[in-house]
Model the fold of this input.
Amino acid sequence: MGGFGTRLRPLTLGVPKQMLPVAGPTMLERVVQRLADLGIDEVILSLGYRPEVFTEAFPDGSCCGVALTYAVEPEPLDTAGAIAFAADHAGLDERFLALNGDVLTDLDLEGLINHHDRNAARATIALTPVEDPSRYGVVPVDSDGRVEAFIEKPDPGDAPSNWINAGTYVLEPSVLDLVPRGTKVSIEREVFPELVSGGDLFAQQSDVYWIDAGTPEAYLQANLDYLDGRRDTNGGSAFVDGIDPSAQLSSDCTVSRSVIGRGCVVGSGASIADAVLLDGVRVQAGARVEGSIVGSGTLVGESASVTGLSVVGSDVDIAAGTKLVGDRVPGPEQWPAI
Done:
């Protein structure tokens, strides 16, 4: 979870993306709840960006009844480096699951573990089909599920398959022997290809629900999928039809297929459609928010419009009459350097 969440800026300027809510609970809570349902009782969080947000959110060191161990990287170590650092920090010496914290999925984790055991694999990865595999690691397999190659982010049109790395792994501790310590190491570009060369990497294909919620479009979709019945509503959500009970909606406003967070206020004649309002957003009279995301504590002024997958950060004032279409506020010129 050590990434900076740059694709979701400005929402992530002060909050790691895994701590953004998805129809109530945070991404992290939704991921950990699935692990708790499997009977897992300890989760090691590999942290880099804003680790204090996690520790402040879970001061008793637990989430969804699962004990949390925090492994804070002294510097970014890339995917394999982060996994090895976390494992060393926690003294891990047995088989373990590794998951991306911004992936929401209905993957059968127990089935993945069983597939790993049947093949006596050193590592097993979950695969999911996508329309455009060029953004991901493409993974062709043979008839036994043994991985034949691991092709990270192929050029569009050059991918040998549309089955991609779904960001969930079962790993034997011996895999950590392939990771030099104290330096950046990519599990996708370095460790997995080495396992492929030894015939030790297996994969399991599954077309169940899967979404990488790390972009504005995907984050919005992940929220709306709960409203559309594509996901269950576990994880302690208090929402009813996407609206937190503490939200105040004017009798003549219009809200359709939207998630509205705690303490939001929607004024007279305002319209909210296919949108996400995080906690404490105020939408004044006659304003419109459509197909967009508005960060916590933000004010959308009277008769303003926020449309076209606009992303507005936290504690922003959108002046009356402003029209945003596909904009990010504040814009990149105001983002701090990484």
Notes: Residues 103 and 212 are 5 Å apart (CA to CA).
